[in-house]
Amino acid sequence: MITIKGVAMECSEIPQIPLESLGAPDNFNGHLSSWDTTKYCRFQPASMSREELEVNGRDDRLAQQPGGMPLLLWLHGVTSDHNVAAICRTALYFGVNSVIFSSRETGSPNSFTSRAGVGAAEFLQLFKVENPIEFMKKSRQRGDWHFIAACAPFKDATPIERLDQRFIDRPSVLMLGGEDNGLPKHLMREANEKVSIRTKQDRRLFMQSGLDSLNVSVAAGILCERLRTYDGSNH
Fold it and tell me: Is residue 8 over pLDDT 60?
């Protein structure tokens, strides 16, 4: 509770729903052909305190997206407030209306990220995940979700422009790692596919420079644009 000039105002953090798993639309029978993109997709929230329920509510419907299969962003290890703000703004721009944060390793939206991101986070559905591996396994079981891990080029990764159509015509989560080391190995191993953005620079000069990847917020923008174009949402 904050009191300013005799006016009392009750405040809370930007809502982040504790997430156990992603699910599917009500009519989903385990086959992608039955996935109806016109219906709400469900998710399974983790247990919440009474205060969390008051802030987050009880709605278990995933925010709808404009056309195509749902695409979510998942930030693991992204600690810079500037990057969190930029990624939230990018997600909103490209119609990726839900963003997941790994609870223990990742910065959370706050007043600074809200200002820096021009309030984008307040228009997104935000989640937090406590156990990343369990979250991935349960989401696959309940909704056939696929996880796409972004990594630096020259690793065992598919350039984004060559990503197999099978990984686009299905509900997907794009995983983005931290500023220094990217995604940890155990999450990379659990992903269905690894993708990268190829450099246009001479490879030898690129490696000599010591820069092996893009800033994570820049990479988020390029990957979201490519994936949302592939799924037909831009047409």
Answer: no
Q: Which helix (H) or strand (E) holds 45?
A: strand 41-45
Rg (CA), the chain: 18
Give the mean model confidence (pLDDT) for residues 189-210: 78
Q: How much is the mean pLDDT over the chain?
A: 84
DSSP-based three-state secondary structure for 89 = helix
Distance CA 85, CA 77 (A): 14
> Alpha-carbon dihedral of residues 91, 97, 98, 101, nearest 10 degrees?
20
- Using N-to-C axis directions, what is the helix angle for 216-230 and 81-93, rounded to 10°? 20
State how far the Cα of 119 lies from the Cα of 88, in Å rounded to an integer: 9
Give the H or E element holding residue 172.
Answer: strand 172-177
* Torsions phi, psi for 176 (to 5 deg): -120, 130
**167 CA to centre of own chain:** 16
Q: Collapse the DSSP code of 4 into the 3-class scheme (helix H, G, I; strand E, B; otherwise coil) and give the result.
A: strand
